[in-house]
Amino acid sequence: MNGHWLLPEHLADVLPAEARRIEALRRKVLDLFRGYGFELVSAPMVEYLDSLLAGAGEDLRLRTFKLVDQISGRTMGLRADITPQVTRIDAHLLNRPGVTRLCYSGPVLHTRPNGLLASRELLQVGAEIYGYAGYQADLEILRLATEMLNQAGIQDAQLVLCHDGLIRHVLELDPVAVRNADEIIGLLREKDLPGIATLRTHFSEISESTVEALYALAQLNGGVDVLEKAHERLPDTPGVRQSLETLKNLINGLGHACVSIDLADAGQYGYHSGVTFSFYAPRWHDALLRGGRYDNISQAYGRARSATGFSLDLRRLASLTRKPESVRAIVAPAGHDEILLDQIVRLRAQGEIVIQLLPGEDAEHSEFNVDREIVQMNGQWVVQPLMD
Q1: Strand pairing class (121-130; 75-78)
Q2: 124 touches 22 (CB < 8 A)
Q3: Which of 81, 134, 121 is nearest to 104 (CA)?
Q4: 181-217: per-residue pLDDT in tens?
Q5: Residue 41 contacts by C-beta under 8 Å, 6 or more apart in sequence?
Q6: pLDDT class for 2, splitting at 50, 70, 90?
Q7: Percent of the chain's residues with pLDDT above 90
Q8: What is the DSSP letter of 92?
Q9: Is the pLDDT of residue 154 over 70?
Q10: How high is the pLDDT of residue 283?
Q11: Does residue 165 register a pLDDT over 50?
């Protein structure tokens, strides 16, 4: 193979049948979002870096390609996540006083893949609700995500709920824990019980009660009965009680048979402010969809707005859906006969796929099942089954 045509690692071309499947799913998903009242927005692939990463954490900075604008000389970034851009649109451009529902679809590029099987180019789709702080907005987002997966044919997805706000309430009881939040959250995420148990060895000033609460968080995962155990084992503060009540309200509102709780499934400290969630599919090794509440991010754009939403890689979702059958098509002979061309126009207007051959063409169409042809019979152009 000629090495000049090799693509960079973790990047790949999408061939016709798969590209059509992805595009059909994209249209279906965006139509579903519209049915819920979400308005479609689109943002540029490249922005000035300070705008693109406003309010973002270190993880997003590391995943973002940087380049220099040849016009202004300023540093720009090639987006690795569309959510901050949509937050900027809501806060800075639309500037609406009430609730705003926005959705989006577009490519993003990562400097490094998120896993061995991951691509560095994703087709990100998502939906966000701005301007409503109540759990009802989280419930609507969860219902929309569930319906989207159902329509994609994934009806056995497992929903895992967490509450990053609850974790923050526990950490903020101890200044030492706050100063070392990133390291502690890493231990929680990995369920590293020995590491949590020895926190007082590494941070002598951290309180024993904080370590006990963190140790409990790392163990509080399983069915919905985990919430009752959390009431018993976590600090009895207003913030903790409210967080657990929110999770309970969501579970009651969903009526979802495949819900589990993992109170240590934390994201990046300071980004999410409330409920977070992930959906897992049986045929995929990682979370298929992630989302949650991020009320603090829009402050970086000059306007504090409550926000909740989700996003996913549409290419990944499409790869888990059933491969569509070949679409029936009609082949037409080459030529400029007006009656023939009129017949082709009429058939296409009726929704038929008509492939008119070029002179001498012998093409292959793996995406189509060419089972009929237009032939001339008794001076008329008619459609008949294609003879083997």
Answers
A1: unpaired
A2: no
A3: 81
A4: 989 999 999 999 999 999 988 888 899 999 999 999 9
A5: 86, 89, 102, 103, 104
A6: low
A7: 73
A8: I
A9: yes
A10: 74
A11: yes
Give burial (CB, 10 Å; 0-12/13-18/19+) of 330. buried
The highest-level CATH class for domain 15-153+288-324 is alpha beta
Q: How confident is the model at residue 3 (pLDDT cuts 50, 70, 90)?
A: low
What is the rounded CA–CA span in Å between residue 234 and residue 213?
6
The set of residues, in sequence order, having a beta carbon less than 8 Å from that of 17 and lying 6+ positions away, is: 323, 324, 366, 367
The C-alpha atoms of residue 292 and residue 290 are separated, in whole angstroms, by 7
Q: How far apart are CA 125 and CA 121, in angstroms?
A: 13
Residue 246 contacts residue 128 (beta carbons within 8 Å): no
Please give the distance of CA 165 from its chain centroid, rounded to a whole number.
21
Which residue has 């790392």 as its token pair? 218
- The token duo for 196 is 């949590």
pLDDT of residue 99: 96
**Coil, strand or helix at 72:** coil
C-alpha to C-alpha distances, 189 to 264, 311, 315, nearest whole angstrom? 6, 20, 27
Mean of pLDDT values over 28-35: 98
264 alpha carbon, distance to own chain's centre: 21
> Could you tell me how many residues make up the chain?
388
In this structure, the strands spanning 275-280 and 287-293 are antiparallel
The pTM (predicted TM-score) of the whole model is 0.90
- CATH superfamily, region 158-280: Bira Bifunctional Protein; Domain 2 (3.30.930.10)
- CA dihedral of residues 14, 64, 106, 71 (deg, nearest 10): -110
- Amino acid 1: pLDDT: 46
CA atoms within 13 A on the CB side of 208: 0
Average pLDDT score, the chain = 91
